[in-house]
Amino acid sequence: MQPVPPAARAAVDWMLFPTALGWMSIGWNADGLASVRMGYPSREALEEVLATSNAAAAPPLWCQQLADRLQAYGSGVKDDFRDVPVAPLWNTPFQNDIVAALRSVPYGERTTYRDLAALVGRPGAARAVGQVMATNPVPLVVPCHRVLASGGKLGGFSAPTGIALKQQLLEMEARDTEPTLFRKRSTTSLVGAH
Predict the structure, then answer these.
(1) CB neighbour burial string for 75-97, b if at least 16 within 10 angstroms, e if fewer
(2) Please, what is the average pLDDT of the chain?
(3) Are strands 13-19 and 32-40 parallel, antiparallel or unpaired?
(4) Sign of the alpha-carbon dihedral angle for 174, 22, 153, 134
(5) 63 among known catalytic residues
(6) Domain ranges within the chain, ordered by starting residue
(7) Is the pLDDT confidence value at 11 over 80?
(8) pLDDT by residue (tens digit) across 117-132?
(9) Which fold has domain 6-74?
(10) Which entry of 118, 144, 159, 169 is annotated as an active-site residue?
């Protein structure tokens, strides 16, 4: 078992808010964004999952701005969230490389587990990419919804409504863009880019 990253062990403050995609929360600590929960039918359902009804009294300005951006995104405003500071939530260089590469996949584009593995120089590691996606604590900011299984199958999604929400996100992003499959476009590595 790998050690838990320090950011994941640190206390997290929560902010809950409604969006067109259902109730959402963001959790943060001194290291940055530590959690995004989305797709809940009510504040109470989200509080039950978080095991709290206490949101932070005064969230930092960047959290309020992120909440505003997530609400706008849920209403169809393009945003890739690449500038959002994410706490160090992953343990290994491979996991961090996958997250960095995925954050470079533009709004409206899609990739596959296999292509993402190849993008970071590990072409046989599609299943390992799937594990990173399955445990992603900050969806939308690390856009795991843009990763598809072989043959264009949706794969999974860790929201209460599962792949139905993933499909909704992909359709929303495709409205104003022509979805394409994102692949490495040059010999310049994306590894380490954040």
Answers:
(1) eeeeebbeebebbebbeeebbbb
(2) 83
(3) unpaired
(4) positive
(5) no
(6) 6-74, 93-175
(7) no
(8) 999 999 999 999 999 9
(9) Double Stranded RNA Binding Domain (3.30.160)
(10) 144
What CATH code is assigned to 93-175? 1.10.10.10
> Cα dist. 90→7, 29, 99, 114, 128 in Å?
9, 15, 9, 20, 13
- Residue 65 pLDDT greater than 50, yes or no: yes
